[in-house]
Amino acid sequence: MSKQPRPVVLLRPVPGRTSVHELWAGTKLIAVTAVAIVLALFPGWVSIAMVAVFVLATARLARVPWGALPTVPRWLWILLFVGAAAAAAAGGAPYLMPGLGVGGLLDYLHLMFLAVVLLGLCSLVSWTTNVSDIAPAVSKLGRPFAALRIPVDDWAVTLALALRAFPMLFGEFRVLSAARRLRPRDVATTWWARRRRASVEVIDLLATAMTVALRRADEMGDAITARGGSGQISARPSRPTSADAVALAVVLAVCVLMLYVELDTPLATGA
């Protein structure tokens, strides 16, 4: 009996009240931004390994279960394998033997591991942060830019509404797709008829999805108005604590260590 695939669950914190959950949302955003900048400037193997260890240790501290990881669909594995085969065919240094270079495959694996590490880092924020805490944190972090007449509060409200609407609309689309599959279909005997039926189904789903999105937006607008307007979203009290200072110190230490390893050690520079 095949196992039920685990769906992608984002923007919903896992249950628990660990020290990672209690951190200020702005601290997590600063940490992700700092690590991502260092990785973008120095995406070496050692830096990727250090960030992977940091992500695993933080996930362990936050008690994120393995069940939170989604099941990778089979078609994605096939695409990754095809990409690896194409990269391996490119060859390049280093060479295992004359005429057999693995440089292209190593570059492909390098890019894949970098993407996985960054996705894991962003997923940690999603699994340990309440969506309602994001907008106040963004508003407080962008407070210095308000002097330049930049609408920071409006951007924070827009971000908060987008983060709240995404899981809701994703669930609605899954229900619509499941309902569409349960409807009886006409028997298509030719290839052209099957293609035409598939295109009609896509158009119907898009039209229904737009209708659902508009209805949800209207309901959300009424709810926001009843609660005092959009300004209340970013006006929620939000401030860091002493635990956030410790967390930022740890992230700073990791970033400094990554820079030291990438700039000074022979392993990172290839010397």
Sequence-ordered SSE layout with sheet pairings:
Layout: H1 25-41, H2 45-61, H3 74-90, E1 95-97, E2 100-101, H4 103-128, H5 134-141, H6 152-182, H7 191-226, H8 231-234, H9 242-264, H10 266-269
Antiparallel strand pairs: 1-2
Helix pairs in contact: 1-4, 1-9, 2-4, 2-9, 3-4, 5-6, 6-7
Salient structural properties:
single chain; 271 residues; mainly alpha; 2 domains; 2 strands; 68% helix; 2% strand; flat; disordered C terminus
Write a structural description:
This protein is an all-alpha fold and 271 residues long. It has 2 domains: 1-129 and 241-271, no CATH class; 132-239, no CATH class. It has helices at 25-41, 45-61, 74-90, 103-128, 134-141, 152-182, 191-226, 231-234, 242-264, 266-269, and strands at residues 95-97, 100-101. Strands 1-2 form a two-stranded antiparallel ribbon. α1 runs antiparallel to α4 (103-128) and α6 (152-182) packs across α7 (191-226). The longest helix has 36 residues, at 191-226.
